[in-house]
Amino acid sequence: LDYQHVQVPFEITLWIMLASLAKIGFHLYNKLPSVVPESCLLIFVGLIMGGIIYGLNDRSPPVMDSDIFFLYLLPPIVLDAGYFMPSRPFFENIGTILLYAVVGTIWNVFGIGFSLYGICQVKAFRLQDVSLLHNLLFGSLIAAVDPVAVLAVFEEIHVNEKLHILVFGESLLNDAVTVVLYKLFRSFCEMPTIKSMDVFAGVGKFFVVGLGGVLVGLSFGFTAAFTTRFTKDIRVIEPLFVFLYSYLSYLTAEMFHLSGIVAIISCAMGMKRYVEANISLKSHTTVKYFMKMWSSVSDTLIFIFLGVSTIGENHEWNWPYICFTVIFCLIWRALGVLVLTFFVNRFHVNTITSKDQFIIAYGGLRGAICFSLVFLLPDFHRKKLFIAATTVVILFTVFIQGMTIRPLVDLLAVKRKRETAPTVGEQIHIRFLDHLLAGIEDISGHWGQYYWKDKLEYFNSKYLQKILLREYDQPKSSIVLLYEKLERKHAIELAQAGQLSHGPAHPSFLCSAFLCSSSDRTVIRDQKLEDTLNPDVLDNIQEILARNLYRIRRTGPAYNRHTLPGDSEPTEHAKEILILRHKSL
Amino acid sequence: VGVPRGSAPVTALLSLAVTSEQIEHLHRRFKQLSQDQLTIRKENFDSIPDLEFNPIRGKIVHAFFDKRNLRQESDGLADEINFEDFLTIMSYFRPIEMNMDEEQLDRFRKEKLKFLFHMYDSDHDGKITLQEYRNVVEELLSGNPHLEKESARSIADGAMMEAASICVGQMGPDQVYEGITFEDFLKMWQGIDIETKMHVRFLNVDTIAHCY
């Protein structure tokens, strides 16, 4: 039995297996995920596992190594979040998001730090030796909202898009502030004296960390887009480039002490447009599924480890400190959101309602990032106190806030996500509005949001697209993309129902799809179709679609006699009217 | 400061939450465009360099001279517009105010959508026909040199069909759908909150703090 030889990979695989089996287990019992969010269940499983290990070994179970967390478990989740971030609402609300992320986090850090220091002054609690700096350090790691926890909870409650993007964007971007403050206070702890120069250096460092992260991310993103330009003949490894470049951007940023999360997000957002135009459809699907799979596994592992690490002798249970930490976290978050929203609403037409504000404040969940950061603290005699406080805060936010947020959302009747199918018409209208507003801004001489967006688009089409996109492929407008996507979907539906024809003329798919979407399919079946769908044709659905899509473009929708001039009788009718015609049974 | 006051329509406009600073800014801009004349013609819009790259440039300029937008009883196109008319058009893009009630909001929304409707409906017959819709899509996609003309057409046709299914529901055989009327247009835009989207933030923050 050669266990030593395979120990490490074997144990890793076993943990991942446990995580995945736990996930299956939850979804087998249908009602559970709607009441208790998955993250809670996973922590619970972790607690059980930790208890078992503790019972067997009679010593503390393995604590989640901060390196493993930051280098292996966190990047897939953030990459997934950044890649699939809906860029339009994100950039429309970027001002608010940045305000919450930067100013809000700083407010929370100092608020929590100073109030806890105040608590430490009370003699009865026996906390005199926790200095201000230690409290500020603790504040800096506990104040930040955690993207993993937020994602896990908000994914299930489907609030309206704007609210979702505000909380989520904030949780992703506050990493820059957290990194700077944490490192700053930690270095202050080790320095004998602190001069004001150091404080200013800290402020400057914040800009370096944030902007540096963005730059690193964008450069890797554009390099990735450039690389995919040449991958036409080796489609198989195309998805790999997406992951490699993103991970490299994260590691590079961490290497230079910049914000890795901001880097990987900018990389993903920067490269997405060009990479998607360059890679094949299959590669696109592969990228999507792998990303989702990795982030899901990471997510599960993180919560299980969180549970496991809770058990053990790492804690010093000073209950006053812990309770006040929880209370202050809640109070300062609520205050911060109120004050900041007050400012935001003065500048914005689309105000954030008080219900939304409540959800933003209540959705400030803490998670594994705090946990790892607290383990990274230098060993000083009160470290265990901080570990205990962090654990309780995380468990409180994930369990109590995570479980109650859904009933609260229902109770307060918060505006939910609009569940309608995307339509080509809407895309057209939105695009029209964009250009109209850009034009009006040009005419009125006002350099506003649409003006800059227009300028960016112009720069993009003139320079960036020429370099980063493959030569023969045209950059497609979102209207065209959506139309093609819908066409493909309907074509597949028709093919599956055995109604695809190889005959010369047939109505446009969109035509027939809209006709038969709710009506009886037997009507379509009556048209003159060769009902031969050979098995090998079925296998090659892509080819069918390509052939038939092309045919669609050539013939145009076949309306009845009142067709387009130039196709049949041009003299017949001056005006074009839309007529739908079923072939009679 | 040279702002034409006193004429009745302008004072009525002044009460419509276009603040005096904005009017001054727009007046300065008007003078720039008209080269210190009292009226602007279509050619004056050529002097705006950034507007050239806008795919729907033609429609935007046309909208300024469209008599329906200028709240004049007649129909058709004006040859030239003065500052009053310029302001009227710009007022379609003012942001909503905090203290509007339901009825005002509704009227506000309808006004903006009417402006858009006139832009789509180029032959002024009160309906957006298939050809007009095609025209819009072709213009929007004109920035893509590689796109075939037929694709733009089929996209417009598909969109028209969507509109038909929203507005008329399930159509029977041989049913004719003439074109999108204004009521149908309203239905199509229901999902998009135009009150908050269709505005231009002029100049300063005082947009919200009104002074009337």
From TrEMBL, chain A:
Keywords: Antiport, Cell membrane, Glycoprotein, Ion transport, Membrane, Phosphoprotein, Sodium, Sodium transport, Transmembrane, Transmembrane helix, Transport. GO terms for molecular function: potassium:proton antiporter activity; sodium:proton antiporter activity. Signal peptide: none annotated. GO terms for cellular component: basolateral plasma membrane. The chain crosses the membrane at residues 12-29, 35-56, 68-85, 97-120, 132-153, 165-185, 206-227, 247-268, 289-307, 319-347, 359-380, 386-409. It is found in: Basolateral cell membrane. Residues 17-409 form the Cation/H+ exchanger transmembrane domain. Residues 526-585 form the Sodium/hydrogen exchanger regulatory region domain. InterPro entries: Cation/H_exchanger_CPA1 (IPR018422), Cation/H_exchanger_TM (IPR006153), NaH_exchanger (IPR004709), NHE-1-like (IPR001970), NHE_CaM-bd (IPR032103). It is a multi-pass membrane protein. Pfam families: Na_H_Exchanger, NEXCaM_BD. One of its GO terms (biological process) is sodium ion import across plasma membrane. Belongs to the monovalent cation:proton antiporter 1 (CPA1) transporter (TC 2.A.36) family. NCBIfam families: b_cpa1 (TIGR00840). This is Sodium/hydrogen exchanger. The gene is Slc9a2_1.
From TrEMBL, chain B:
The keyword Lipoprotein applies. Gene3D superfamilies: EF-hand. GO terms for biological process: cell differentiation. Residues 108-143 form the EF-hand domain. Its main location: other. This is Calcineurin B homologous protein 3. It comes from Cinclus mexicanus. It is found in: Cell projection, Lamellipodium; Cell projection, Ruffle membrane; Cytoplasm; Membrane. The lineage of its organism: Eukaryota, Metazoa, Chordata, Craniata, Vertebrata. It is a lipid-anchor.
